[in-house]
Model the fold of this input.
Amino acid sequence: MARRTRASVAVVMYHGVTREPLPFFNWCQLDAGSFEQQMRFLADEYAVLPLTEVVDRLTAHRPLPEHTAVVTFDDGFRNVATTAYPIMERHQIHSTVFVVTGLVGTHQPPWTDRLFQTIANTPVSSVTFEGTDWPLTTPERRSSAHRAICKRLKQIDNDRKEEHLRELFRQLGGCPEVSPDSPLATMGWDEIGHLSRGGLISFGSHTHTHPILSRCSPEAQREELTRSRDILRDRLGSADLFAYPNGTRGDFTDDTKRLLAETGYRCGLATVPGLNGANADLFELRRVNVGADEGFSQFQLNMIGW
Ligand SMILES: [Zn+2]
Done:
């Protein structure tokens, strides 16, 4: 196994990194202690390269160092700048952050975390969704309701999902704004510009509004890709790296991959778990997905493609 994976690239996926407690379990927010331990491990055991360099080499069929890793963050959480960055800077680890351009500057996270924030703070004791009543009387019940509702909303057309969300927010007494100091807040252009100039972090597109692309019409998909591309080019000078929202094999199609290439992106990162060999599909790169419930030994196994 070690020999087979030596020639493979492990693209690690994070979302946020936090030192603050959350009202109930949030898979996307890894505690800073675990993140630090993983960064130390990567710095000691891997050649951690910028994503652009890995894409360059895979495109040109040039060899990669043994045990290559890439660090990525989806959604553009602000705590990547405030909490993860100082840790990565200490280890001189390069990373790529995929931002949702329509949310940059609003501090608001994608819809799954807006629903998380709303369910965490609602004064109501239950919510009805598709004929089922979900009690919200304990943190565990709020967590179950949030997970089940998100899972279902990811399976339906984007327009229907937005309708359901509006109805859910109405029942829950409105959708409170995420404050800039919340672990769920996202970065602004000032922070993105500052990090970009620092040279250790690159930025890529994670669409303009974070819909699941396979649940959108071809026109809406093209709009998501071109709009975020144009904004990133305008702000940062380039936009050729892309990560699919949600990113499982059902969340994008062959048409999505073709559209990505047509609109000037050079890669598409999925969340399909695994490593990438020399002949990997650049528009379907696999990742090692790290969630808040993952122990260090499981992380080490995932890094060798276990
Ligand atoms: Zn995302």
Q: What stands out?
A: The first helix runs from residue 2 to 6.
